[in-house]
């Protein structure tokens, strides 16, 4: 295979995501069929929506028969964070050609964390490496959710606690970020913004407010943030 090295490297760095996505996707599949929805909705949603937390929330939308406007607004608030960190990858994705649209579609928190944590290997074809990394991460979620839905439609499971696997994954990626940066300032800013929002902001608006506060603080202390 011409781009075997790119595929091999992408698989190596995506192993932490595989461990998290396979379990969390499995939990999503189980949860979906536990509400008596057809199992095939899990792979369809994971293929064409691929939005992690939003797919879990979508189950609630289905149950309460929410309107399209309500769904659109909620979806915007849940995923608005990607508009902020996606901007930082515009330069990196500039020369990705035909893969650019898919790379934008497949950009998740975990994929972003890997792209900004793992230093690029100059010997690799970046376009194919980014594609393989994004596609592998989606495949983990797709396979996990599909298996969860199929097995869950035949065997009853207690799904309590499975959603914590995503939190655990973020902890691992955060540690890797610190090991790479060796700078505690961005993490301190994130902690301050999150704690402030958790205490003073309603839960449905906490995420976007914490991101805005973090961005303001990052720009304010950009010299400290940039120092390694």
Automatic annotation (TrEMBL):
Pfam families reported in the protein's UniProt record: AzlC
Principal place of residence: membrane
Membrane-spanning segments: 12-33, 39-62, 128-151, 157-175, 184-201, 207-225
Its membrane topology: Multi-pass membrane protein
One GO cellular component, as annotated: plasma membrane
Entry's Gene Ontology BP terms: L-valine transmembrane transport
The family this protein is said to belong to: Belongs to the AzlC family.
Protein name, per record: Branched-chain amino acid transport protein, AzlC family
């Amino acid at each position: 295979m011409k781009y075997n090295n790119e595929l091999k490297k992408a698989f190596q760095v995506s192993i932490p995501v595989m461990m998290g996505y396979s379990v969390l996707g499995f939990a999503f599949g189980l949860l979906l069929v536990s509400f008596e929805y057809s199992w095939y909705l899990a792979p369809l949603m994971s293929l064409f929506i691929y939005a992690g937390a939003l797919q879990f929330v979508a189950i609630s939308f289905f149950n309460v028969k929410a309107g399209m406007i309500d769904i659109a607004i909620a979806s915007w608030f849940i995923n608005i964070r990607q508009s902020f960190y996606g901007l930082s990858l515009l330069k990196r994705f500039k020369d990705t050609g035909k893969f650019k649209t898919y790379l934008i579609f497949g950009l998740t928190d975990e994929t972003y964390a890997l792209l900004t944590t793992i230093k690029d290997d100059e010997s690799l074809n970046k376009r194919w490496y980014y594609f393989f990394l994004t596609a592998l991460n989606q495949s983990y979620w797709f396979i996990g959710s599909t298996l969860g839905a199929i097995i869950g439609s035949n065997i009853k499971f207690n799904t309590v606690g499975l959603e914590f696997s995503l939190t655990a994954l973020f902890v691992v990626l955060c540690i890797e970020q610190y090991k790479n940066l060796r700078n505690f300032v961005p993490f301190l800013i994130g902690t301050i913004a999150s704690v402030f929002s958790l205490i003073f902001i309603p839960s449905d608006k906490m995420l976007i407010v914490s991101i805005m506060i973090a961005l303001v603080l990052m720009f304010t202390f950009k010299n400290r943030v940039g120092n390694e």
